[in-house]
Amino acid sequence: MRVVAAMSGGVDSAVAAARMVDAGHEVVGVHLALSQSAATLRESARGCCTIEDAGDARRVADKVGIPFYVWDMAQRFQEDVVADFVAEYTAGRTPNPCLRCNERIKFAALLDKALALGFDAVATGHYAQIVERDGRRELHRAVDMAKDQSYVLGVLDADQLARSFFPLGDTTKPQIRQEAAERGFSVAKKPDSHDICFIADGDTKGWLTRRLGEQPGDIVDTDGEVVGRHEGAFAYTVGQRRGLGLKVPRADGARRFVVDVQPSTNTVVVGTEDLLGVDIVRGDHTRWCGPPPAGEVRVGAQLRAHGEEIPAVATATGDSVEVRLRQRTRGVSPGQSVVLYDGTRVIGSATITGTDRSSARVAS
User: Which residue numbers mark the site Interaction with tRNA (predicted)?
Assistant: First the structure.
């Protein structure tokens, strides 16, 4: 096969590209230029997409002996990921930009361009596995659960999976670093990037404030009493406890958390921890990795990239899904994603639109 290997400049994508060559594919390395200010060199383990990263990717490609190109997708990334991130926070939701990047950039824009240029597939350094079964490719969790990235790949549909390779899914991260060192890759000990790649300092609140400006408003309790002030409701998310700066403590001294963000009134609502627990999650923008589930199906539901999997029952209707969790979980916010599993197999995902609490639990 003719394969585009997406090379971020990190150790994972370096080994993924090398493994695709070893498997006998005709491989071309491609670095996606996603930053509109890529001249800034990396100053820490945060962030990615810098000139330094492109240089690291090029050196690996030279070592492996494959052609290497930089594809400028900064404008597309700005429109489909960064602007979406700002719009979601402005609407009082909490998005996951990594899922949007996988959906709209790496497995839409990148894959579409690769196919248009005559390539057959795209390979990335994600930790997940593709399993062939009954003539169909399934997405499964990685062997290394500590690095498993199947959650952020839950937005891929069957057609995209048919043209995707994840060569690292059967290997642990320490083994990947050892392999990179044995191959002589200079990135073998390079720190992993983490957090949100376009917010290199990790300060999401500050980044949003610089984009949107200060928008002062009230923090109220569930009775409507003003207990504090904020500089922008967009900077708060359901489940948040730190950084609230409340001026009026509860009489019983109980800790308070954000339980709702109301952008229409620029209000943040706080309440006690017991109000955070939900066991019904509703979502839309469903993306199925194969045939959509029919009727009620027992699933495992994961609500965060590194969250635990919760036994549940899911019912899909059109572009929507309702997931009834067997146990209550806290801090679930609209805008986040729920990814559904059948064992290690990813069924699909949805963007959370709302939550609720039932009077009865889902039966075991």
Answer: 126, 336
